[in-house]
Write a structure and sequence with these properties.
- Helix content is about 45%, strand content about 15%.
- The chain has about 220 residues and is an alpha/beta fold.
- Helix 4 crosses helix 5.
- The structure holds pyridoxal-5'-phosphate.
- The site of pyridoxal-5'-phosphate has 14 residues, from strand 8 and helix 9.
Length: about 220
């Protein structure tokens, strides 16, 4: 028989606790973000019922379709946007999300600042770094990080920390360590790193937010 949502959640919490013990960290310092993209409300509700409160989606439209009803039923949900954000969706994103993980370029700083000024809602943002310097990947170049952070601070965008998605198929630990160093050098406390395949490693290297989808919901089609 397949595991229940509560069992899967317990397994992930167990892995986080183990990684915390190995690195002398406090599990209370790690936020588990359940990445529910592609999964319908029926798959999400059991996880909410099991106690999970922080969720993440990667598309504004999909989140708009799914979450207003769920949030009406469970008002204490926290919703994060992970992944790429188009500037023309900035206002919708600011209205819908409690945290945005994909701030990665000048034009998006401008769009988000304008959206936050207009709505009067200031949403904490993680700056995404293209940590493996990959051609096709989102995230700002490492060299461009200080300038982007300055711009975001000047625009009064609350900075939650740094976020990365390391290159696929190779050991992630060196990239996590590099992101942690960049955060430290730039005076940022938050580190959004680690997915189903590597979140225990990310926790041992300082993650404050892990983004876990498959390990909680099963594989996506
Ligand atoms: C889908 C996604 C995740 C979750 O990935 P899993 O491997 O399913 O845990 C984490 N972060 C981002 C940015 C994603 O798009």
């Amino acid at each position: 028989m397949s595991k229940t949502a509560a069992q899967l959640l317990e397994d992930v919490h167990g892995e986080i606790a183990r990684a915390c013990k190995a690195s002398r960290r406090d599990p209370a310092d790690i936020t588990l973000i359940a990445i529910s993209k592609t999964h319908p409300a029926e798959a999400i509700v059991p996880l909410i019922e099991a106690g999970q409160r922080v969720f993440g989606e990667n598309r504004v439209q999909e989140a708009q379709d799914k979450w207003p009803a769920l949030r009406a039923a469970y008002p204490d949900i926290e919703l994060h946007l992970v992944g790429q954000l188009q500037s023309n969706k900035a206002e919708e994103a600011v209205a819908l999300f409690d945290c945005i993980h994909g701030l990665d370029r000048t034009s998006l700083v401008t769009a988000l600042a304008r959206a936050m000024d207009k709505t009067g809602k200031r949403v904490p943002c993680f700056v995404q770094v293209n940590i493996g310097a990959e051609e096709q990947k989102g995230g700002c170049a490492i060299g461009g990080l200080p300038g982007l952070l300055d711009q975001a601070r000047a625009a009064d965008i609350p900075l939650a920390g740094l976020m990365c998605v390391p290159p696929f198929g190779i050991e992630a630990a060196p990239f996590f360590a590099l992101l942690a160093k960049l955060a430290q050098d730039n005076g940022l406390a938050g580190l959004s790193m680690g997915m189903s395949g590597d979140y225990p490693t990310a926790v041992m290297l300082g993650a404050t937010h892990v983004r876990v989808g498959t390990a909680l919901f099963g594989s996506r089609d």
